[in-house]
Amino acid sequence: MLTLLLILLPIVAGVITLLVGANLAKQVALVGALAELGLALFVWSQFDPAAGVQFGFKYHWLASAGISFAAGLDGISLVLVLLTAFLTPLIILSTFSHSYRNSAAFYSLILFMSAALVGVFTATDAFLFYLFFEAALIPVYFLAAVWGGENRLKVTFKFFIYTMFGSLFMLVALIYLYYQTPGTHTSEITAFYNLQLSAKSQGFIFWAFFVAFAIKMPLFPFHTWQPDTYTEAPTPATMLLSGIMLKMGVYGLIRLLLPIVPLGLQSYGMLAVVLSVIGIIYGSIIAIQQRDMKRLIAYSSFAHVGLMAAGVFAATTNGLQGAMIQMLAHGINVVGLFFVIDIILSRTKTRSLDQLGGITQVAPQLSVYFLIILLGSVALPLTNGFVGEFLLLSSVFAFNGWLGAIAGLTIILGSVYMLRLFQMSMFGPKSKWVEGFQDLTFSEKAVLLPLVIMVLWIGIYPNTFLSISEPAVNNLLQFVGK
Predict the structure, then answer these.
(1) How much is the pTM?
(2) For residue 476, which phi and psi values (nearest 5 degrees)?
(3) Quick one: which of 282, 222, 253 has its CA closest to 407?
(4) d(CA 268, CA 32)
């Protein structure tokens, strides 16, 4: 029942936020998100990594068809639930220095999206997974379309059509798998693991899942919606998209694609890794050329996701564990980076690197927080990014040495665009745009301090989180080798 509470609590908090009106909306939303974090930490304290799926529930939805509202937590799910519960209150707190029109709706949408994300990460029924997978799209669409930039309608329409189109492929695959289950059909995800499908069928299902999840992450060449959407969406929506929502795609690869279609992985895994590695290099090169800070981080996120996907398709313990810890690290780092950019934009009214410089002279506290988070993103040893990148690159090297060597260029290219970002914005002569620049406020430090703590905690004590997911990862890999 604890899993049900994890899903329902943000929904109830979102409804209350909608009802209390604009004056109290952000405070009520923050209390609701903190309550969800507290519940997630309690679940973690009661969780046994070796015990499989726990704290589950199952209610008949379409009983005669074997379809249920069913969810539960294993180690893979719990890591991502913790990430969602940790980042959501920080994203809400990051908005306290801003005012949004119709703020009650704004904050309730953030909470509704949090609930949908938890639903995706905990669903044990395939059609419930699909329901939450689509439901998560609705709040972020309205957040971007109503509170976004000048081109928000065009950009969000493209994002909506792209992701809906990809999800239809997944729905077709799930319906096919449902009808392959013996006797009274069932849509339990674990029942799909035990199906004995032909290599041809697995090939079709592989690409149906691949397209759906590749668009969501996104992977090359399904990424064209991402830079514009990240740039035009309001910063809280961008944080949700990059910090948590893209993890649905990586999670889908791990939970559905690998164990259900191992023969499809054998046939097309190499091509999938090649596309992922192309995305790493392509995204990094484009990031180096960017002058808009927000757009630069968008392309860097695209490159990081490519490495996660390459590790997943390598289908080893190191690859999957690397993807798990890197999803945590990337979520923390990218939310921190987008928040720093939002702070700079709110004070200078520009995101252009050509117009910035010298901020470190007037904002030393911001400089320190920014640097620590940035070093996590470039995978400096003893930061969170190093652990994931090391495991992921080792898995890709084991899969194919040449692809591993090419993927390893992310270390160099990532350092180039990130250190360039820091140098051009923070160092050099003080530009006119930073005159009167104020250092961090209390609420801004309250957002950045937990992120910095996690950058160092994961980097120094990664086993805190790796030990949660390892038994579930090993159990899942048994189906990959079936």
Answers:
(1) 0.92
(2) -65, -40
(3) 282
(4) 44
Task: List, in sequence order, every residue forming a beta bridge with 68; answer none if it has no partner.
Answer: 60
Q: Are 87 and 332 in contact (CB under 8 A)?
A: yes
Q: Report the length, in residues, of the chain.
A: 482
Residue 154 CA to residue 257 CA, distance in Å, equals: 32
Grouping H, G, I as helix, E, B as strand and the rest as coil, residue 183 is coil
pLDDT per residue rounded down to tens, the chain (482 residues)? 788 899 999 999 999 988 887 788 888 999 999 999 999 999 999 998 888 889 888 888 777 777 788 889 999 999 999 999 999 999 999 888 777 778 888 899 999 999 999 999 999 998 899 999 988 888 888 888 888 767 777 777 777 787 888 888 899 999 999 888 887 788 888 888 888 888 888 889 999 999 989 988 888 887 777 777 777 778 888 888 888 888 888 999 999 999 998 888 888 889 999 999 998 998 888 888 888 888 888 888 888 888 999 999 988 899 999 999 999 999 999 999 999 998 888 888 888 888 887 888 888 898 999 999 999 988 888 899 899 899 999 999 888 888 888 888 888 888 888 888 888 888 877 777 777 778 888 888 999 999 999 999 999 999 999 999 999 999 898 887 64
Instruction: Give yes or no for a contact between 28 and 16, defined as CB atoms under 8 angstroms apart.
Output: yes
CB 461 within 8 Å of CB 242 = no
Domain extents in the chain:
2-480
